[in-house]
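Hi R.,

As promised on Friday, here is the backbone we talked about, encoded as structure tokens. Could you run it through your design pipeline when you get a chance and send me back a sequence?
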């Protein structure tokens, strides 16, 4: 098989996948499965070997990300039930002294989306955005633009969100390195976009969604930050609310620094190696969420009942809340992303084992276009076509993972480039587009104007920063 024939097969595979997902409304799990079989057969791997490879890729991906994703979801349930989301928003209101309320919402979403799925972050933060918009007479165009930007950036490029976590592990990149660089790139990109576009997104005034602001009055123009705070029962303090997210990040960062700075025979590495284990670090975050809940048992139980669909009405004890309710809701939230990510891993495995994948990498590397740009553009196109960040990320890993050496890109750079590619074109074929437009009172035209355009701009800014870091040798 020649590199050109393999390239044609890969392009057709992506086209088939897009048609299955967009035209025939097929579930991503089944669409990825059928496309993987098609690629396996057309690249002469045989049906038996193709199915065996799919099973190995599916199981291997679940082995890598299953427990970390479940731990991340438990953190999300804890932050939801303990009022940590409101506490974080209030912390930013105080930080900005009641000004620029869109930043309070955006940075809350930015932090929340590190361990929490994007749609869940939007559902948690959108009511806060509507209330603050009403209180401060801020346009929902402003609130929506920066809410989706904050959420999107960390969702796409900072683990342990499933897509970028699976990319990191599949490529063998340093998890601490991807988290650290992802935070740096996304944070700078956010504020560049904010200072460039904020006046533009504020020109049109859009009212908050009426049912979210029933009984909410506008605050006086001279209202103090304390008067703008969101009320909540027995809220944790700001740092306690952040601890379920901060603790895993700190553990992973410490491990990465020690691995880079200490000699291989240092006894300290025996301890820090455990810190760098994704399962251990995220489970520590889940323990922090439980400890936060311990200080506000009654509030946590009330919120758990309110946040549980079709609650059975039985007595809810704190122990049951933690060991049953949180885990049940975690499985409900995590199951679909887990299956999509695992099947994406299976699809990637098929692509990686295709004949001539290395030769195709050499052909791309010698084509005169920097490979880092090829990876970014390809990922962005796949995301724009499929509407799924996870599907786009896992498809790109399958295409480019096997070419990594010949492309001359390190696992860290390749992982961040794929993550940046998934930031660029969130539009009407994405579930998140509809969730946020409906929750922020935007119509479709306004959604494209204040969400899609801002996402495209921010995605290219993030990639531009990545290019600067790569070509200056800061990031290798």
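Update: got your reply. Pasting your designed sequence below so it's all in one thread:
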């Amino acid at each position: 098989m020649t590199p050109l024939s393999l390239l044609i097969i890969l392009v057709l595979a992506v086209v088939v996948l897009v048609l299955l997902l967009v035209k025939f409304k097929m579930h991503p799990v089944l669409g990825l499965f059928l496309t993987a079989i098609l690629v396996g057969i057309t690249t002469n791997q045989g049906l038996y070997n193709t199915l065996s490879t799919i099973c190995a890729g599916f199981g291997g991906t679940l082995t890598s990300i299953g427990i970390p994703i479940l731990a991340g979801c438990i953190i999300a349930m804890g932050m939801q039930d303990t009022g940590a989301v409101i506490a974080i928003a209030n912390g930013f209101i105080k930080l900005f002294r009641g000004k620029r309320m869109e930043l309070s919402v955006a940075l809350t979403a930015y932090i929340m989306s590190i361990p929490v799925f994007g749609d869940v972050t939007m559902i948690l933060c959108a009511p806060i955005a509507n209330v603050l918009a009403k209180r401060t007479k801020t346009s929902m165009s402003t609130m929506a633009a920066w809410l989706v930007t904050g959420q999107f950036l960390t969702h796409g490029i900072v683990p342990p969100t499933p897509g970028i976590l699976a990319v990191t592990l599949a490529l063998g990149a340093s998890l601490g390195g991807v988290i650290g660089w992802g935070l740096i790139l996304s944070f700078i990109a956010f504020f560049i976009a904010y200072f460039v576009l904020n006046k533009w997104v504020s020109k049109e005034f859009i009212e908050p969604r009426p049912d979210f602001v029933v009984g909410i009055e506008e605050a006086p123009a001279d209202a103090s930050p304390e008067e703008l705070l969101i009320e909540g029962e027995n809220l944790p303090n700001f740092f306690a609310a952040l601890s379920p997210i901060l603790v895993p990040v700190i553990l992973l960062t410490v491990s990465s620094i020690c691995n880079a700075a200490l000699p291989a025979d240092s006894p300290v590495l025996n301890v820090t190696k455990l810190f760098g284990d994704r399962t251990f670090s995220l489970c520590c975050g889940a323990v922090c969420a439980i400890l936060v809940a311990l200080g506000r048992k009654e509030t946590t139980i009330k919120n758990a009942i309110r946040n549980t669909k079709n609650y059975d009405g039985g007595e809810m004890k704190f122990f049951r809340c933690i060991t049953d309710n949180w885990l049940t809701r975690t499985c409900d939230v995590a199951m679909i992303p887990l299956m999509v990510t695992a099947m994406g891993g299976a699809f990637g495995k098929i692509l990686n084992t295709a004949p001539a994948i290395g030769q195709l990498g050499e052909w791309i590397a010698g084509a005169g276009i920097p490979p880092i740009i090829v990876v970014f553009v390809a990922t962005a196109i796949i995301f724009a076509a499929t509407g799924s960040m996870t599907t786009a990320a896992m498809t790109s890993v399958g295409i480019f993972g096997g070419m990594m050496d010949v492309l001359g890109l390190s696992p860290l750079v390749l992982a961040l480039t794929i993550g940046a590619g998934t930031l660029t074109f969130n539009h009407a074929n994405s579930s998140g587009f509809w969730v946020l437009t409906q929750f922020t009172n935007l119509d479709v035209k306004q959604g494209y104007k204040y969400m899609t355009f801002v996402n495209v701009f921010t995605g290219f800014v993030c990639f531009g920063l990545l290019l600067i870091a790569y070509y200056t040798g800061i990031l290798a």
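One thing I noticed while checking it: The radius of gyration is 22 Å.

Thanks again,
M.
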